[in-house]
Amino acid sequence: MSEELLRLFVSSPGDVAEERQRVDLVVERLNAEFDQRVRIETIRWETSYYSAHDTFQKQIPEASDCDLVLAIFRARLGTPLPDGFPRLPTGEAYPSGTAYEVLTAIERRKVDKLPDVYVFRYPDSPAVSLDAPDRAEVELQWQRLKDFFDRWFRNKQGEFIAAFQNYATVDDFSAKLDDCLRQWLARRGYLSQGLIWDRLRGSPFPGLSAFEADRGRVFFGRDLAIAQAVNRLREAGGDPKRLPFLLVIGPGGSGKSALLR
């Protein structure tokens, strides 16, 4: 059986960069586990390059043409769209590019089998200083986001008219996304078979040798530790008064070298 390719469109404003990175980590882990059966291709606008002849939004692939749409919201709804962009059936402008991607995907799903649309939201309001120069913009974006959910996900009586998932932390988001994608794959007939290793290649344990990428199908799960280490190193490198130095400490055999590699 040939490997099936499924396209996952990631839609969000620009304030969830860490969550978007976690999407790639979760997908990478699942692709290793479901290798040669199904592969998820992540479509993220910031990983592509766009020609200056047109707007970003017009060159980004349509979310509604993908198999799965993942929307992530924290404290922003996003940037308003330029004039001449497609409008809502009522004639109103879509409130942002992310809103356009989510709403058009939902409408497509109502008449077709795909895409499935999962919306994740961080529910707490943003913290902003009273003297912050961008305070007005932060408050405006938060109000626009609340208005968006009040219109499209709840009715005037407070009843939910569309489903979404809350998450408390980035780690919580990663765990819920992993579970969400596994359930989605299971409904399509792809069940996890556990860890697979060809015994003709010998033992998967390399002994005193370093773990290499070819063992990623049976040994994985350090994505969170790797992401945290990289973020700490970047933070240190971003301060000209600090030396960008990262110290990894652990007992022998705990996987320090494998994590660094």
Overview of the structural elements:
By secondary structure, the chain is an alpha/beta fold. It has helices at residues 17-33, 56-59, 97-111, 135-152, 170-187, 223-237, 256-260; strands at 4-11, 38-43, 68-73, 116-121, 165-166. Strands 2-1-3-4-5 form a five-stranded parallel sheet. Helix 3 (97-111) links the parallel strand 3 (68-73) and strand 4 (116-121). The two termini are 33 Å apart.
Describe the structure in brief.
This protein has helices at 17-33, 56-59, 97-111, 135-152, 170-187, 223-237, 256-260, and strands at residues 4-11, 38-43, 68-73, 116-121, 165-166.
Oligomer: single chain
Number of strands: 5
**Spans of 5+ residues with little confidence (pLDDT < 50)?**
none
What is the C-alpha radius of gyration, as a whole number of Å? 21 Å
Tell me the helix content. 25-40%
| Strand percentage | 5-15%
**Order of strands, widest sheet:** 2-1-3-4-5
Q: Which key features would you list for this structure?
A:
single chain; 261 residues; alpha/beta; 7 helices
Write the layout of secondary structure elements.
Layout lengths: L3 E8 L5 H17 L4 E6 L12 H4 L8 E6 L23 H15 L4 E6 L13 H18 L12 E2 L3 H18 L35 H15 L18 H5 L1
Parallel strand pairs: 1-2, 1-3, 3-4, 4-5
